[in-house]
Amino acid sequence: MNLENRKRELAKEFSPLLEKTTKTSKIWIGFLIAVILVGVYAFFLQLFKGHIVTGMRDNVVWGIYIINFIFFVCLSYSGAFISGILHFFKTPWKNSISRIVEIITVLSLIIGPIFILLCIGRLDRLHYLFLYPRIQSPITWDIIAIMTDLIGCFIYLFLTFIPDFAILRDNSENAPKWRQKVYKFLAIGYQDTPEQREKLHKVTRTMSAMVIALAIVAYSVLAWIFSLTLQPGWNSSIFAPYFIVAGLYSGVGVIIIAMYLIRKYYNLEHYIRKVHFIGAGIILLVISLLFGYFTFSEYFSRWFSHKIQDANLLNTLFTRYFWMFIFANYIGVLVPIVILFFKKFRTIKSITFAAVIAVVGLWFNKYLIIVPTLETPYLPIQDTRPEFIHYTATWVEWALSFAGVAAFILFFILIMKLVPIIPMSGIIDNERDQKKNKKVYKKIVTE
Amino acid sequence: MENNKTEKGGTNRRKFLKLGLMSSVTAVAGASLISNLAIQDEEVTDSGEKMRLLTPDGKIVEVDASNINKYPEALITPEESRKGIPNRKFVMVIDLAKCKNARKCVEGCQKAHDLDYNEEFMKVQLIQDNPEASPYWLPKPCFHCDEPPCVTVCPTGATFKREDNIVLIDNDRCIGCKFCVTSCPYSARQFNWGHKDKFDDTSQPYSPETSVPAAEGTVMKCDFCPDMLRQGKLPHCAQSCPMGVIYFGDKNEDIVTNGEETVRFSQLIKDRGGYRHLEHLGTKPNVYYLPAVNRQFPLERGFNVDEDIIERYKDVPYVQDLKKQGKI
User: Fold this and answer.
1) Which fold has domain B90-290?
2) pLDDT tens-digit series, residues B71-118
3) A interface mutation test: which of B103, B153, B199 has the most A CBs within 10 A?
4) Whole-prediction pTM value?
5) Could you tell me the residue ranges of all domains in chain A?
6) What is its main location (chain A) (predicted)?
């Protein structure tokens, strides 16, 4: 059978990706594990010595942990959003990048919440959240929303993996036993019959729509944690949509970076092409315009109405945080816009560069939303010890942040060892569609 | 064993308080006495000695003397501290005209709550409302709001609003998420960032009403000293202030006192133009301020403190001016 042969061919084509580990990737894995171990050490230090080892103090009680939390949840949310849209609208070029997007979604949704746990002073009492829940608290909403989102994303991701697991199950005679067993278990008896295929497509489509809705809810609730307080820099009605646009901005950025790295190190130039970069680049352009618009509206209304607390906040932003503000909200928006706007600048490298600027800029944008606000509360910070006034992250916080990034990359590499990063079933679907189209085309021509 | 006994006393005090004003055969009725006594339902060995108490509705009840507990032994458990003292609406009035940053309130509070030199439930701020206005010292406790943002956002109910207006923290319940710290517009809350030896002190069982001992990784703040209120005494800050700046009392009775004079709360607010800080936020604080008019002391008297305390005000434009002129 032609289809079976093609499946075998593809499984063979991708098997080196799954089974062989090159020297460079071994070194990379070792390095990432080392970074994670430093993070683990920092974590235990914080666990035993308390939050005194961080830079957080009475005024700035949330630091880069919560920024990382927002950032990773941002990623997952936008991953879900983009992947949902790709699936739902059956975007023609979705196949090559859909799996990258899905993996980003789930990994960041696992790593993000770890950072919120790091903000909690008494991890030993975490179960109190369920023992004594108060539904009035936005934190409770957030827990419900993120857990629902996590489960939804897992189901969705699994659905998109099933056909590939089935192909791998049928075509991995030479693989070690445990691998065969894992594939058999994960394929849950999928045989790729037309009815099964039809059913799976339907369920995946429904889930893709659900995932978009879940992501919007989860991320709005996250924004509300800030905007529902009375703090001058946070109490803003546009925070929920602003966070959603910002999330998409960094999400698309990270997807482009991941596409670039995977293409380069796994020699997948055949599957991830320039057209994908340009497609993603144009999405990034649209979102960067939106993001810039939201950022401008947010700060412009504060500046124009200049309530005393808002004026104080802006004053802090434009003195102590001047360069960070310029980088995050000017360079971080304008450079991607310029690169992506002009056709001749749109090369794979420059698009990736724009994405890097966007992602780093967005991290600092979040820093500027969290830290300076906490440094300029309603009542001026007075009669407090000097080291409590300003925030600087300590090595413990940085170590844990980098460990989070390292864990993200490491898990990414490991998942790519389990399933091909390009969905084989998607390639087959594509080819089938093309054939159909050709037939239809021939029909039209002959008629 | 002893702990057990005191807890029993604690759980029953509330019932006892419901009896309200009481007098034994031998003792005289008085607010402080109320809290010195407690009844227990459960059978304790009879001492044979009976005491008769008068309830607010005029009934006389007879209880065994062994059921009567003395105050310092009695512990208000976290569970019981959620209820509040019945029929009270506590309120504080701070007379800014009398404050000269003597910091006795800060010190008294620190001593009573076993706080370090650098930890303050009560902070004294130097506020200048506008460039023309003359600056004044503003003692800032927790405002015990009627619409407390900290209580709304708490995910576990570790911080709560009681019937008697007081907002308390149960640090046995607190998970240390710090959301309450960020949601308080008055920066009234502190966090225990690291471990300290004093947290291990078990000589006094923990009660949210005393906030002692504090615990690592949890939040703490001014508690209006309910333990003192139960004894019919003023909070530590009001007691320690040599100027009588801080009035404390009950809105239901419409009376506040600073220990020297007792005045009608409503009259005081009316006559002296009392206001609440940042009223526009809608938090409805229970701490009122009397404006700093007809001052009793020049502001500069407030700089008669340690060098490192003066340093804490270095960002205030007025202080920077004074420094330029070489006055401090």
Assistant:
1) Alpha-Beta Plaits (3.30.70)
2) 445 678 888 889 889 999 999 999 999 999 999 999 999 999 999 988
3) B153
4) 0.85
5) 1-224+394-447, 231-250+274-377
6) membrane
